[in-house]
């Protein structure tokens, strides 16, 4: 019966997908890193063999710690310092996602990390937006249309969040959907960046916050109740506020209830969470319990390079290891589209004209 049989990889590949949490500097093709490093004279790579390099990223990111996981980004950021490098990486990102069946994606990066080659913050953003536009055009011509948006990230250990928030507002009509903070979570609470969030709220702008990944409930609570985040990056530790009683019935604490009641989207990234130690396995990942409890769950890649993953792979893992059905994949995709930092009418158009017909053709039910 449709919706209950295990979903075959060919079906997952064809399913329309929506991606809210993907890092531009965490999704480079290994071959591109090797080429860009050689052309730029960057000699810091652990190997110049593309296959071995891909493996190196996956192994190094498999560290059990968010801090060590983040160290691997020094190599990708090193080859994203010129206009051409940034545009190429963005173009390839759009093409790779489109080839994987992603129809809508928000890709994020931290402009402040791309100034070493002398570019200004504006030039960095322009270069990335140019690359996304090229990728969109080529993907459409290849018969795999994708709509790309970018989120501008500020690094939580640094002190440029207000400036980056202003940049996000300045570019909001050019393809920037919103703002985010990322980087090590423990020791860097989101309230350090309160002025940036207050500014964004006054500007009617959108933002998400990485919270509840490398640190627990206090981080989620601050992100929502102090900072006013529209969405949570990961948010996986919200399960710490859900107790299972003797009767087996889950009881939600006040914060978990708030997140569910307010339909706050959770940008969940199973493979990344396993690598950083935020979850033990896909089978035990809280995403499936949260889906059952009907939180606003979405499925995401986080860093395709570091996790050796794709949207299809994350979905297939949930199918194979956590029993997700095609109806579940459809539900998560519609959740993501409902939560996108895109005008409401455009969200509806993608849901009604792309996502629903795409899943209907695969036998899924609403
Ligand atoms: O999962 C993550 N948690 C916190 N920070 C992250 C994660 N993935 C990537 N980052 C950081 C490293 C990148 O250089 C930065 C901007 O994309 O965001
Ligand atoms: Zn992330």
UniProtKB/TrEMBL annotation:
**Cofactor(s), names only, from the UniProt record:** Zn(2+)
Protein residues bound to substrate:
23, 25, 183
What's a Pfam family this protein contains?
A_deaminase
Q: Site annotated as Important for catalytic activity: where?
A: 234
The record's listing under SUPFAM superfamilies reads:
Metallo-dependent hydrolases
Q: Which residues form the Adenosine deaminase domain?
A: 16-356
**Keyword field contains Hydrolase:** yes
Q: Which residues form the active site?
A: 213 (proton donor)
| Residues annotated as binding Zn(2+) | 21, 23, 210, 302
Keyword entries, A-Z? Hydrolase, Metal-binding, Nucleotide metabolism, Zinc
Superkingdom is Bacteria
Enumerate the catalysed reactions.
Answer: 2'-deoxyadenosine + H2O + H(+) = 2'-deoxyinosine + NH4(+); adenosine + H2O + H(+) = inosine + NH4(+)
Cofactor stoichiometry and binding? Answer: Binds 1 zinc ion per subunit.
EC assignment: the record states 3.5.4.4
Identify the InterPro entries for this entry.
A_deaminase (IPR028893), A_deaminase_dom (IPR001365), Ado/ade_deaminase (IPR006330), Metal_Hydrolase (IPR032466)
Protein purpose: Catalyzes the hydrolytic deamination of adenosine and 2-deoxyadenosine.
Q: Which HAMAP family match?
A: A_deaminase
Q: Would you identify the family this protein belongs to, as annotated?
A: Belongs to the metallo-dependent hydrolases superfamily. Adenosine and AMP deaminases family. Adenosine deaminase subfamily.
- Give the NCBIfam families listed for this entry: aden_deam, PRK09358.1-2
Protein name stated in the entry: Adenosine deaminase
User: What organism, scientifically named, is this protein from?
Assistant: Fodinibacter luteus
